[in-house]
């Protein structure tokens, strides 16, 4: 039996991760935050003192990652640091890195762990490359200003003292890298439903997503 996949793609700070978690919980589906894989590659390289600009080293690091490493890295607080996110954005542009992480993602989607009845994968290229046949595809986005404001508030909440202009410029630079890379750039799949949540509350986004899921997945 094939298990349905819900693909949730979108840019940084679009709220796709939170939405993916809520949708997975509501349906009892397994959840894979695919950004964590790229972050895991970057963090492993940073810790090894490797050059993040070295594509061969990044590919070798991605190939060497085991499921156990991924599980351990997923729970590592350093995975969420800005330095790791920027590193992830850089290594994710390397074709060999993307290829090395492809099987892990497809295996997760086809055989969701714990016998779950389906899987939710969130990332940048789930609907376009990883699971192009997913019956439900959401592209979650918000204006770059709104996403920068969310990020700014999150940094302030952590006790940091960010400069809004810098946060906005960083967000725009990451968008630029993620959307303009040659391999698997961030673009909505042709059959994705676009959810622009610039003026929506998180609960409105969740309810909208559930309606889309229910319309596309037979009960
Ligand atoms: O979603 P995130 O912030 O954890 O992602 C970190 C980086 O990883 C992001 O800048 C681009 C990359 N990424 C990717 O290229 N493809 C994915 N499916 C997920 C993340």
Strand order of the largest sheet: 2-3-1-4-5
Tell me about the largest β-sheet: 5 strands, parallel
- Overall geometric form: globular
Strand content: 5-15%
Mean pLDDT: 94
CATH architecture: 3-Layer(aba) Sandwich
What CATH calls the topology is: Rossmann fold
Structural class: alpha/beta
Structure annotation, total helices: 10
Q: Could you state the order of secondary-structure elements as H and E? A: EHEHHHHHEHEHHEH
CATH superfamily: P-loop containing nucleotide triphosphate hydrolases
Low-pLDDT residue intervals, each spanning 5 or more residues: none
Distance between the termini: 15 Å
| Domains, number | 1
CATH top-level class: Alpha Beta
Whole-angstrom Rg: 17 Å
Bound molecules: 2'-deoxycytidine-5'-monophosphate
Commentary on this structure:
This protein has helices at 16-27, 35-48, 55-64, 67-74, 82-91, 95-110, 126-130, 144-157, 164-180, 202-216, and strands spanning 5-9, 30-33, 119-123, 136-141, 193-196. The chain has 219 residues and is of the alpha/beta class. It has a single domain, classed as 3-Layer(aba) Sandwich (Rossmann fold), CATH 3.40.50.300. A five-stranded parallel beta sheet has the order 2-3-1-4-5, sandwiched between helices. Helix 2 packs across helix 4 (67-74) and helix 8 crosses helix 9. 2'-deoxycytidine-5'-monophosphate (DC) binds next to helix 2, helix 5 and helix 9.
List the helices and strands and how they pair.
Elements: E1 5-9, H1 16-27, E2 30-33, H2 35-48, H3 55-64, H4 67-74, H5 82-91, H6 95-110, E3 119-123, H7 126-130, E4 136-141, H8 144-157, H9 164-180, E5 193-196, H10 202-216
Parallel strand pairs: 1-3, 1-4, 2-3, 4-5
The structure holds 2'-deoxycytidine-5'-monophosphate (DC).
2'-deoxycytidine-5'-monophosphate binds at residues 12, 34-35, 38-39, 85, 88-89, 92, 123-125, 174, 178.
């Amino acid at each position: 039996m094939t298990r349905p996949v819900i693909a949730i793609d979108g840019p940084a700070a679009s709220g796709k991760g939170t939405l993916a978690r809520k949708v997975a919980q509501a349906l009892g589906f397994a959840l894979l935050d695919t950004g964590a894989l790229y972050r895991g590659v970057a963090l492993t390289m940073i810790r090894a003192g490797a050059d993040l600009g070295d594509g061969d080293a990044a590919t070798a690091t991605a190939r060497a990652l085991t499921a156990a490493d991924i599980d351990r890295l997923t729970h590592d607080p350093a995975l969420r640091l800005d330095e790791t996110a920027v590193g992830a954005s850089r290594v994710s542009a390397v074709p060999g890195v993307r290829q090395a992480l492809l099987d892990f993602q497809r295996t997760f989607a086809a055989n969701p762990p714990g016998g779950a009845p389906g899987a939710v994968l969130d990332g940048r290229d789930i609907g376009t490359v990883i699971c192009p046949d997913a019956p439900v595809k959401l592209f979650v986005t918000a204006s770059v200003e709104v996403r920068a404001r969310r990020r700014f508030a999150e940094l302030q909440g952590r006790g940091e003292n960010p400069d809004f202009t810098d946060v906005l410029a960083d967000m725009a630079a990451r968008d630029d890298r993620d959307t303009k890379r040659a391999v698997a750039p961030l673009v909505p799949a042709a059959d994705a439903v676009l959810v622009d949540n610039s003026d929506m509350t998180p609960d409105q986004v969740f309810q909208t997503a559930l309606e889309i899921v229910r319309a596309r997945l037979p009960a």
